[in-house]
Automatic annotation (TrEMBL):
Name listed for the protein in its UniProt record: Cell division topological specificity factor
Known role: Prevents the cell division inhibition by proteins MinC and MinD at internal division sites while permitting inhibition at polar sites. This ensures cell division at the proper site by restricting the formation of a division septum at the midpoint of the long axis of the cell.
Gene Ontology BP terms: cell division; regulation of division septum assembly
Keyword check for Ligase: no
Pfam families: MinE
Tagged with keyword Electron transport: no
GO MF term set: identical protein binding
This protein's UniProt keywords: Cell cycle, Cell division
Protein family: Belongs to the MinE family.
Organism annotation: Candidatus Methylumidiphilus alinenensis
Stretch forming the signal peptide: none
Length: 93
């Protein structure tokens, strides 16, 4: 490394950064396009069922679907509150 290399701009150009960001956006849009239409409705119904037993926020549930050549994977993540925030079970007659 010469003395002049020290003073050169080693940061990537703004065009390279813009290109990288655009590639990320396009990849994200493609992944969203392949999602089934029923996922938001499924997420809402699951949230309603969970709320019968536990007080959770709207953002406490996330439903994602991944697909590869041989299978589809439905992933469900639920953030449950502490024990003190859970609803008490009601007795049924």
């Amino acid at each position: 490394m010469g003395l002049l290399d020290y003073f050169r701009n080693t940061r990537p150009s703004t065009a390279a950064i813009a290109k990288e960001r655009l590639q990320i956006l396009v990849a994200h849009e493609r992944s969203e396009r392949n999602k089934p239409d029923y996922l938001p409705m499924l997420q809402q119904e699951l949230l309603e069922v969970i709320r019968k037993y536990v007080d959770v926020d709207q953002d406490a549930i996330s439903v994602t679907m991944e697909q590869d050549d041989k299978r589809e994977i439905l992933e469900l993540n639920i953030i449950l509150p502490d024990e003190s925030q859970r609803k008490k079970p009601t007795k049924r007659a």
